[in-house]
C-alpha cells in the first residue's frame, strides 16, 4: 500500500440509493438491489467491501509471486459476508482462494500466508475507529 492517503467522496441526491463514488480520478456507482428500493445499477456497499478485500488479496499475492519468480498463472478469490442480522463484534467474512500454476506445495502454502498480509485484510482484522464530522 502506498504512503499516500486514500480518500473517497460519495454523493447521493434524491435518487433511490444510486450513489456516485469518486476516488483518485476514478468513478463507480454503488446501489442497492431493487428489492431494497434501489435501482441495482451498481454494486451494493457490502459487495464493494468484499471486492476491496478480494482485489487487495489478489494483488498482494501477485506482487509476491512476481517478486519471487513463482509460476502463478491465475488467482480466483470467492468471498461472502454473513447476513446483516448476524453482524456484530464477530462478523464473519469467508474467503476461498484458488491458485493456478506450477507451484510446489511449499510455494502454495506461502502464498496462502501472504494473502493475510494484504493491507485491507489488516484493516478489517484490527479495531477500526470511524470519526464522523458534520
Give the key terms:
elongated, 2 domains, two-stranded antiparallel ribbon, alpha+beta, single chain, 5 strands, three-stranded antiparallel sheet, GMP Synthetase, Chain A, domain 3, about 130 residues, 3 helices
Q: What count of helical segments does DSSP give?
A: 3
Structural class: alpha+beta
Number of domains: 2
- Quote the CATH topology of the largest domain: GMP Synthetase, Chain A, domain 3
Q: CATH homologous superfamily of the largest domain, by name?
A: K homology (KH) domain
Percent range for helical residues? 25-40%
Note the beta-strand portion: 15-25%
CATH class of the largest domain: Alpha Beta
Distance between the first and last residues' Cα: 29 Å
Can you count the beta strands?
5
Strand order of the largest sheet: 1-2-3
Order of helices and strands: EEEHEEHH
CATH architecture of the largest domain: 2-Layer Sandwich
Mean pLDDT: 93
> Rg to the nearest angstrom?
17 Å
Oligomer: single chain
State the low-pLDDT regions, or none.
Answer: none
Largest sheet: 3 strands, antiparallel
Characterization of the model:
With 134 residues, the protein is of the alpha+beta class. The chain folds into two domains: 1-43; 44-134, K homology (KH) domain (GMP Synthetase, Chain A, domain 3, 2-Layer Sandwich), CATH 3.30.300. The protein is 31% helix and 24% strand. It has helices at residues 45-68, 105-115, 119-124; strands spanning 9-11, 19-23, 26-30, 72-81, 93-101. The strands form two sheets. The protein has a three-stranded antiparallel sheet, with no helix packed on it. It has a two-stranded antiparallel ribbon with strand order 4-5. Strand 2 and strand 3 form a beta hairpin.
